[in-house]
Each structure stands twice: as structure tokens, then as C-alpha cells.
Amino acid sequence: MFNFTPAVRNILLINVLVFVAQQVLGDQTIMLALFPVGSPNYQPWQFLTYMFMHGGFMHILFNMFALISFGPLLEMQWGANRFLTFWLICGVGAGVLYSGVRYYELDKMNQARMEFRQDPSSGNYADFFRTYLPEAEGYRENARILQESPTPANITQATENVDGIYNQSFNVPMLGASGAVFGILMAFAYLFPNTELMLLFIPFPIKAKYMVFGYAAFELIQGVYRVPGDTVAHFAHLGGMLIGFIVLKIWERSRGQFY
After folding, report:
1. Cα–Cα distance list, 258 to 8, 82, 190, 245, 248 (Å)
2. Is the dihedral of CA 224, 89, 172, 10 positive or negative?
3. Helix (H, G, I), strand (E, B) or coil at 184
4. pLDDT per position as a tens digit, 103-133
5. I need a surface site. Which of 37, 45, 103, 207 has the fewest CB within 10 A?
């Protein structure tokens, strides 16, 4: 543990340097994050750069702690080049899969937006906010006003509110190394399934395979039944695990080439 192998050390250093740059340069670094496909801020190279960005100190702390906890043993098993390759594939793959999910979500939001535009009723207005922004303050009152007084001015204001939520969603980027980290967790559990781990929030040792399975189930539940205000990219985490598993199976079948 905490044996800083070359690739782990370099990944850690790059993430720390980028995080420092974020604090110094602020919004000037935002274009490194991954914006939804279709956003005016979207760029293809963000699939690579987003994984070196972080949303705060605790975000980078947990991701880098996982990297230095589980990464070195994998790097000693694989070598630096293959470990780095695995890290990048999981990170990029997680971004691609998450972007696909996000595109689907935004397309459904747009359909709901167009339904409201075609029928600007208080019910459709409330349904839109209840589905996509239930934590928003005042939307119930606005729906009541629209029901009691569906004047052109109130309809216009309600339409602008709905359009604003939809447009704002295109300006919410994803960032962080979590997709790559979850790929590392999957690889560790796959190669060392019976290694017992002591976690801070569990008072007894748990085998790596059970920890990763439980974590994947938790992320799936959180992603499907999203809590209002939850900004965690759960499907990016699951995407990192899935991509990691696929890469491991490919490498396992090509053992003569990769080992």
C-alpha cells in the first residue's frame, strides 16, 4: 500500500497539478471538463481531459486515495505501460458511456419541454419540474398561477423557465477520475478477489470481490433512482467498471500477446 510505482506516481502528479491549476485559473480550465454532446461547449478531446479535473478537495482526495491504494499492485502485476493504458481506456470509456446516458436523458427532457410548449398547462409545467428539477423552489406556486391565470404573459414566463432548465443542463459538465478509478477497483477485485480489505465505514474485513459487487449495486440503484440534488455521475462509475471488465476479458483471452 502507498508504494508509488512510476505510472501511479505520474497519474497522481498530473491530477494534483491540474487541480492546482483549477484553483489558480478558475473558469479558464472549465473547457477541460466533459460537456454533454450537443452543448456549444462540447469538444471531442474532453473525453480525455475530463478525467484529470476534479470538483473539490474531497473529490480529488478520495479518487487519488483509491489510486494509490489499489493501483500499485496492479502496476507491479502488469507493468507501467499496460497499467497506464488500462487507466486511460477506463476513463475514456466511462466518459463515452456516461455521455450516451446523458444524451438519452437530455433527449427525454427535450421531449417533455416540447410537450409543454404544445400544451402549456399547469399540469405539464409541474410534471416537467417534478421529473427534472424537483428541488427547484417556487415551481408549484408558478404552476398554480398558470392554472388560475393562463394569460399570454404567464405562459411566456413558464415557457422561459422550462427552456432555461433545459438549456442549463447542457452547461453542466462531468469531471473527475472516478470512471478510471472504478475500472481499477474492478481489476483489483478480478485479479485479487479474496484479498480482505478494511474499510473506514465497515468495522470488519471484506473480500475485494464482495466490496466491488456491493459498490456496483449501490451505484446502479443511485443512478436509476436518483435523489434530488444528487450530482454524482453514477453511470460513469458503472461505465468504468464495465469497460474495465471488458478489457480484462480481452487481455485474458490474448494472454500470449499481453503477458
Report:
1. 20, 8, 17, 16, 11
2. positive
3. helix
4. 988 999 999 999 999 999 998 998 998 888 8
5. 45
Residue 256, amino acid: G
Report the C-alpha gap between 197 and 199 in whole angstroms: 6
How many C-alpha atoms does 171 have within 13 Å on its Cβ side? Answer: 6
Q: Are 48 and 177 in contact (CB under 8 A)?
A: no
- Written as nine digits, the cell of 139 is 415551481
CA distance 156 to 65: 50
Confidence (pLDDT) at 259: 44
Whether residue 41 has pLDDT greater than 50: yes
**8-state DSSP, 192:** S
Cα(27)–Cα(135) distance, integer angstroms: 26
How many of the other CB atoms lie within 10 Å of CB of 23?
A: 9
- Give 26's DSSP letter: G
CA distance 184 to 148: 55
DSSP classification of residue 32: G
The model's pTM: 0.84
Q: Which three cell numbers stand for residue 16?
A: 494534483
pLDDT band with cut points at 50, 70 and 90 for residue 224 = low
pLDDT tier for residue 221 given thresholds of 50, 70 and 90: low
